[in-house]
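Need a sequence for this fold. Nothing fancy.
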């Protein structure tokens, strides 16, 4: 009996994954190496500092902690520049309709994102008021695949983990949902999201029968 749905933000509500990719690629190029979309899969859902570690490893680059903070800040400034131009037109297809259908069926809805830029994005797409709870990168101490973000979401909504369905576009996010004991719906490629309970190709396939299993 499903009582709540928890949505990842980047790559599920909006396609900010492409902006994260552009900003990381710019940083990699500046450091003298290439960064492909395939490499970027490993960064999805992962925190900013952990993403940087993965990127530096790819480029075989070793720097001190202070430099790491500076590089992460640089990437975030580029990323913020890209997302500053966002508006409602960037909400992915059927997302708003689906959330309204859930609300009409008395299902609670929350955001469970690793991003510290969550509120900026939700405000620019005017969706802040859509959610009963918002758990973002500022509220968590352990990033996905740790279940913390989704467990805090369930707690804030007052439901049990096994009454929640999570919608995720990242491998780390599907793992986090499964670690939380929740039903995980992957949005994207079956090859990448193989641990999900169900995979849909894109948000056009968001319908109520997904949660009536
Ligand atoms: P920020 P999600 C994640 O958001 C992104 O998928 C990931 O690529 C990013 O590094 C992480 O947020 C941190 O984002 O730098 O904005 O704090 O997919 O969990 O909504
Ligand atoms: Mg995501």
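Here you go.
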């Amino acid at each position: 009996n499903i009582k709540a749905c928890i949505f990842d933000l980047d790559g599920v509500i909006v396609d900010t994954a492409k902006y994260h990719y552009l900003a990381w690629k710019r940083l990699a190029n500046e450091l003298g190496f290439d960064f492909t979309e395939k490499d970027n899969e490993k960064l999805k859902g992962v925190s900013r500092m952990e993403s940087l570690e993965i990127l530096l490893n790819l480029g075989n680059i070793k720097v001190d902690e202070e430099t790491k903070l500076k590089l992460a800040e640089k990437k975030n400034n580029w990323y913020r520049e890209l997302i500053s131009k966002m508006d409602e037109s960037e909400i992915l297809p059927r997302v708003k309709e689906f959330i309204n259908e859930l609300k009409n069926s008395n299902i609670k809805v929350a955001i469970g994102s690793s991003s510290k830029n969550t509120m900026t994005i939700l405000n620019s797409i005017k969706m802040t008021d859509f959610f009963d709870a918002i758990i973002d990168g500022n509220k968590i101490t352990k990033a996905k695949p740790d279940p913390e973000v989704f467990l805090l979401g369930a707690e804030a909504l007052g439901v049990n983990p096994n009454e929640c369905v999570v919608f995720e576009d990242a491998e780390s996010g599907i793992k986090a949902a499964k670690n939380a004991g929740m039903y995980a719906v992957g949005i994207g490629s079956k090859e990448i999201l193989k641990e999900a309970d169900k995979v849909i190709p894109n948000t056009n396939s968001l319908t109520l029968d997904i949660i009536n299993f």
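For context: The mean pLDDT is 96.
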